[in-house]
Amino acid sequence: MSSSAATSTNITWHEGHVSRDERAQLLKQRGLTIWFTGLSASGKSTIASALEQHLLHRGISAYRLDGDNIRFGLNKNLGFSPEDRTENIRRIAEVSKLFADSAAVAITSFISPYRADRESARSLHDEAGIPFVEVYADVPVGVAEERDPKGLYKKARAGEIKEFTGISAPYEAPVSAEIHIRTDQTTIADAVHQVTAFLETQQYI
Ligand SMILES: Nc1ncnc2c1ncn2[C@@H]1O[C@H](COP(=O)(O)OP(=O)(O)O)[C@@H](O)[C@H]1O
Ligand SMILES: [Mg+2]
Questions:
Q1: pLDDT tens across 11-37, in order?
Q2: How far is the C-alpha of 32 from the C-alpha of 49, rounded, in Å?
Q3: Where are any strands of DSSP class E within the chain?
Q4: Does ligand 1 lie within 6 Å of residue 47's CB atom?
Q5: How far is the CA of 12 from the centre of ligand 1 (A)?
Q6: Which of 49, 62, 145, 170 is most buried as measured by Cβ atoms within 10 A of its Cβ?
Q7: 20-141+173-201: which CATH topology?
Q8: What is the pLDDT confidence band of residue 6, given thresholds at 50, 70 and 90?
C-alpha cells in the first residue's frame, strides 16, 4: 500500500463552527509549527524542550512532538528504512499541522534527514496557510559523535545499528531553513533566544 495514496472513499470534510481567525482571537495566540532537523545528538530535543518551557512560561501553549517519543506510540510500527523514515515524517507533519491548527505552537524534533520529506511537511502547512519554521540544528558529525548521549554513534560504528544518519545513512542539510543554529558554538539559552527573536520578528508570538 502506498502511503501517499488516499484509500478511503465516501468521506467528506466536516467544517467546524469556529474559523482559524476566530479561534486565534478567542485563545489569544496563533498556531505554527517549528520543525527542528539535524543529526542525532545535534541538540534538537534539548533546544526544543528549553523552547517549549520558555514559551509556556510566557503563557503560550506549546507542545513537543519528539522523534523517540513518537516512535513509542503513534509510529511504533515504523523502522528506519527510507520508506519508513518518509512515512514517519509524513505522519508527524500531519500531526504537527493539527496541533498548529488548534492554535498551539507545535515543536517537532526529528532527524528528518531527507530534504524532500521536509519540503512535503512544509507544503502541507503552506497549503493550509499555517506558518512552518524550519530550524537546522547544525553540528559537525565529529562533535555529535563525541557527545553521543545515547551511545548510538558507538553502536553505529560497531555495526550494531544499520542505516544510522551521518554514519551509514545520508543527512541532507537544509538549504533555506528559516533558522540556522550552530549548536557547537551556541548555548542552549542563546539558541532559544534565536528562535523566539525570529518568532517575534514575524509576529508569530
Ligand atoms: N549548545 C547545545 N545545544 C544543544 N545541546 C547541547 C549543546 N551543548 C551540548 N549539548 C548536549 O548535546 C546533546 C544533544 O542531545 P539531544 O538534544 O538528545 O540531540 P537530538 O535530539 O538532536 O538527538 C545533549 O546531551 C546536550 O546536553
Ligand atoms: Mg532527540
A1: 998 899 999 999 999 999 999 999 999
A2: 16
A3: 32-37, 62-66, 105-109, 132-138, 179-182
A4: yes
A5: 44
A6: 62
A7: Rossmann fold (3.40.50)
A8: confident
